[in-house]
Design goal:
The chain is of the alpha/beta class. The protein contains six helices and ten strands. It binds S-adenosylmethionine.
């Protein structure tokens, strides 16, 4: 019990672990491609995996990206690509403004349902606090212009082995992974292909590992400063 208290007290001092926004805080972006995720809000909250094109995967990624023991990561954003429809949509969640996010999948899916019910054009439209929607696919994201892009793939170089990691955008696939066209697009951006380990994991678990690695690096940098 004492060990737990000590651990939490260290991390509560870090910027990444903070539940308050910090102007010096580096921004971490996640992008998850939902190859079959429906653009239509009429999926059932009673059977999310069976009726939505696996929006349950995207909900778990949201949970892993933002949810802390006692708060929300304010320095994280996630972009979810919904390709299960006549034209793709993107939903963005911004940690600094996010409200009404609970750890359970059903509530998260209900937030996505609300966003998908809005008319989507080329401009971001606010759904609920911190959640925005617009028309568009992976290649339409402006976030790739900011910092390094990392493509998460099982055979990439070890993410832990990278000497420095600044502001970054981490791109992941769903249960299907990324297509050759997506991979060519990411290659064109000069993205780094990185792995979080030798075994194929679920996308949400990869996000936990990335967040954890960044937390540890930040905590150790802050210790070195003292
Ligand atoms: C369930 S996996 C996809 C499996 C899919 N059948 C494939 O072959 O791409 C979901 C996503 O998590 C990421 N991923 C899974 N394991 C990983 C690992 N060990 N290192 C880096 N990324 C990983 C990849 O982005 C992958 O597209």
């Amino acid at each position: 019990m004492m060990a737990d208290v000590f651990y939490i007290s260290i991390f509560s001092k870090t910027k990444r672990g903070s539940t308050r926004p910090s102007i010096n805080c580096p921004m971490c972006n996640f992008v998850v491609v939902g190859n079959l995720a429906t653009t239509n809000p009429d999926f059932s909250l009673e059977d999310i995996p069976g009726t939505s094109g696996r929006i349950d995967i995207l909900c778990r990624c949201i949970n892993s990206a933002f949810v802390l023991s006692h708060g929300i990561r304010r320095d994280v954003q996630i972009y979810l690509i919904f390709r299960g429809g006549p034209s793709p949509k993107t939903v963005q969640l911004r940690g600094r403004d996010l409200r009404h996010l609970n750890p359970d999948e059903r509530t998260t899916a209900a937030l996505l349902k609300k966003a998908l019910a809005l008319e989507a054009d080329s401009e971001w439209r606010k759904s609920t606090p911190g959640i925005f929607v617009r028309a568009g696919d992976l290649a339409d994201l402006e976030v790739f212009g900011e910092g390094t892009t990392y493509y998460l793939r099982e055979d990439g170089s070890d993410f832990r082995g990278l000497s420095s990691v600044g502001d970054g955008t981490f791109v992941l696939g769903d249960h299907i992974g990324l297509s050759e066209v997506d991979e060519a697009f990411l290659e064109g951006l000069g993205s780094k292909i990185v792995s979080v380990g030798p075994i194929s994991l679920h996308a949400d678990h990869c996000i936990v590992l990335i967040n954890n690695e960044l937390d540890r690096r930040e905590a150790s940098a802050e210790m070195d400063e003292k």
